[in-house]
Amino acid sequence: MDSIYSVNIERAVLSSVLFNPDEIEDILGILKPADFYLPAHQKIFDVMVRLHNSDMPIDEEFIRKRVDSKDVDDSILLEILSANPITNTLAYAREIKDGAVKRELATLATTIKKVAIEDEVTANDALDVVQGELYKISTDSATSELKDMEVVTNDTLSYIKKMKELGNKHLIGETTGFYDLDKRTTGFNEGDLVIIAARPAMGKTALVLNMALKNVEAGKGVIFFSLEMPAEQLMLRMLAAKTSIPLQNLRKGDMDDNQWSNLNRAFEDLNTKKLFVDDGGSININQLRARVRKLAQNEDNNISMVIIDYLQLMQGTGNKDRHQEVSDISRGLKMLAREMKIPILALSQLNRGLENRPDKRPMLSDLRESGAIEQDADIIMFVYRDDVYKERDEARKEKEASDKGEEYKSKFVNKPVEEAEIIIGKQRNGPIGTVKLDFQKQYTRFVDKENSNDAPIEVVFESISDTNKETNVEIPNIL
C-alpha cells in the first residue's frame, strides 16, 4: 500500500503550507483535497483552500475553528505542526497526486468487475462506462503549472525561429488541399477543431474526402469516421476524384479499357497509404477517443488528421438533453485534438432557417446547437454553391406552372463545373472571408480555380501531387 499513499508525505506538504502559506498557489495547480488519502488530511487541505480563496491567514488557529474535532483531532494537527520542514514541496505534491491516480485506477478495477459481471448491461454499455471513467482519471491526472514570463518568451522565440526556418511558407499545418484555402488558413494546425458546415447537397462530404485524399497522398495518416455513408461509397467518391472517372460510371462498372487500366493502377497504390475508415454508423465521444488513440499508438500510421461525418450523428454518453450532449461532444473533440496534437475536422448540419432568407449564404447563427460548437471551434467553414438553389428555384417554378396547366421553360443550365464558395465564418488565429473553388460534379471533386493557382502549393513536410496527375490512395480499412 505504500505505493498508493504515504501519510508522512501528506503530513509534510500540509506542514509546508502552514509554515509558508504562499506555497499553496503552486500546490493547487497539482492537488485537490480528494487527492489526500487520510480523510483528516483531506478536510485540513480543504479548509486551507477555503482560507486562501477568502484571503484569510492559513494558520493553526483559523484551521482549528473550521474543522470538526470529530473529524480532525488535536493529535493530527500536532503531528503536522511537528513534521520536519521540506525544501521541494512540489515534488512531494506530485507524489501525492501519483498515489491518488493509482487509487482511482484500483477503484476502476472494481467498477470494471461490477459492470462486467454484476450489472445487467450490454458489453458496449459496459465499455462505455469504463472508457468514460478512465478518461476522467486521465484528464484529472494531467496537471499543468503556471509558466513564468521567461518560459513563455523562450517558447515564443523558439516558435518564431521555427517559422523563419520554414522560409515564410504559408502552409504550416496539414494541407486543406487547396492553394487559396491554405494561404488563408496556413493549413489545419495541431490542436485545431475545424467545423465544416453546409445544408444537404452542398458537397461537404466530397470536400473533406478531397482533403483526406490530398493528405494521404502526402504520406499522412487520416482517420475517417463515416456515420452516414458506408466505406465503399466513400471509396467510390474518392476514386472518382482521383482518377477522373465519372462517379456514375464507377457505380455501374461502365468503363472503357483505359478507364479500367487507370482504376487498376489506382488500386495497386491503395495499400501503400494510411486511410482508416470507421463506418459503423454509431459512435460516442468515448469510443471515438479510444479508437483514435489505438491507431495513433502505432507511429507507422502517422495519424495527422481525424474527420467526423457528421457531428450531429454522434451519440451522447448519458441521459442529457441534446444541446448538452452536443456541447460535451464538441468539447471532447477539442480536448482530443489538443491531446493528440492533430487537427480534427467535424462536419455539421445547418438549420433550415437560412432557406427562408433571400441570401442563403450561411452564417455562424445557422449552426445547429451553435453555442457550444461556435465556442470550441478554432475554424468554422461553410460550403455554399449558389447553383444548387438556382436549380431548385427553377424546378419549383416549372412545377407550379405545370400544376396551372401553363408552360415554363427552366432557365437553369446544368453545368459540369459549378462555382463553390468556402466561407470562413470564424478563424481564431487568422482572417475570415471567402475562398472560391470549382466543383466538378461528375467527379465529386473540388479544385482550385484556374486563375488562383499562380504558385504551387507549398507543403512544409512533403510535396503534394498535382490534381491531374496519377496519385496514390488507399482502400479504407473498416475498423
From TrEMBL:
GO BP: DNA replication, synthesis of primer
Catalytic activity: ATP + H2O = ADP + phosphate + H(+)
Gene Ontology cellular-component terms listed: cytosol; primosome complex
The keyword Repressor is assigned to this record: no
Record keywords: ATP-binding, DNA replication, DNA-binding, Helicase, Hydrolase, Isomerase, Nucleotide-binding, Primosome
Domain SF4 helicase: 167-453
UniProt keyword annotation of Isomerase present: yes
Single GO term (MF): ATP hydrolysis activity
EC number per UniProt: 5.6.2.3
Enzyme class name: isomerase
Pfam families membership: DnaB, DnaB_C
Gene3D superfamilies listed in its UniProt record: DNAb Helicase, Chain A, P-loop containing nucleotide triphosphate hydrolases
InterPro entries: DNA_heli_DnaB-like_N_sf, DNA_helicase_DnaB, DNA_helicase_DnaB-like_C, DNA_helicase_DnaB-like_N, DNA_helicase_N/primase_C, P-loop_NTPase
Function: The main replicative DNA helicase, it participates in initiation and elongation during chromosome replication. Travels ahead of the DNA replisome, separating dsDNA into templates for DNA synthesis. A processive ATP-dependent 5'-3' DNA helicase it has DNA-dependent ATPase activity.
UniProt similarity note: Belongs to the helicase family. DnaB subfamily.
Designated name of the protein: Replicative DNA helicase
Species of origin: Halarcobacter anaerophilus
Higher taxonomy: Bacteria, Pseudomonadati, Campylobacterota, Epsilonproteobacteria, Campylobacterales
